[in-house]
Amino acid sequence: MNIGVLALQGAVAEHIRMIEKAGGTGVAVKRTEQLAEIDGIIIPGGESTTIGKLMRTYQFIDALREFSRQGKPLFGTCAGLIVLAKHIAGQEEAHLGLMDIQVARNAFGRQRESFETDLDIKGIDRDVRAVFIRAPLIEQVGEGVEVLATYRDQIVAARQGHLLAASFHPELTDDERMHAYFLDMVREMKQEGSPC
Is residue 83 classed as helix, strand or coil in its secondary structure? Predict the structure, then answer.
C-alpha cells in the first residue's frame, strides 16, 4: 500500500518512517497528480492556517475533496485534524471541511505546555504514546463520528468512515500502532472498493 504524506509543511519524514515501520510504503506528496498513485494520505501537523494557504496555492483543496469522495482514507494529525474539520471555533471558513467535527485551535495551550502521555485508543490498544504540541481539541462530533480517545474527558481522536483525526503527533514516538490502524483502514477501503 502506498500512503502519501502531504509535504507542504510538518513532520513528513517522521510520518514516512512510521508508515514503513507499520508495513506500508510512504510517499511525500508535493503535487496533486501524485494523489492518483496513493491509497491513503496523512495531513501532518504544522500551522493549520499556513497549510490551508499552501493547499489553496497548490490546488490541493479540490483535489483532496475528490480523493475523499472516492472513499480513499485521510488521516489528519494535530494541524491536519483542523484541516479536515467542517467547523473551526472562531473561524468562519473551514479548509477541507470533510469531517463532521468542530475543533478548537491551540486548546492545550502554548508550546511550553506541550506534553506526552499514554492513551487508551478504541480499536487499537492501551498505552498508545501521544505527543501534544500546541494541540487542537475536538469540541463536538456529528452523528456519524466515532470517538476513539479522550484525555481528561476531552476528545483527542475520532473516526468518521474513511476519515481519521488525532490532536496529537503519533509520528514523534516509536509507537507505530496509530499508523498501523490507518493502514488497516486503507486495506478495508481497498477491499470494499474492489470488484467481486
Answer: helix
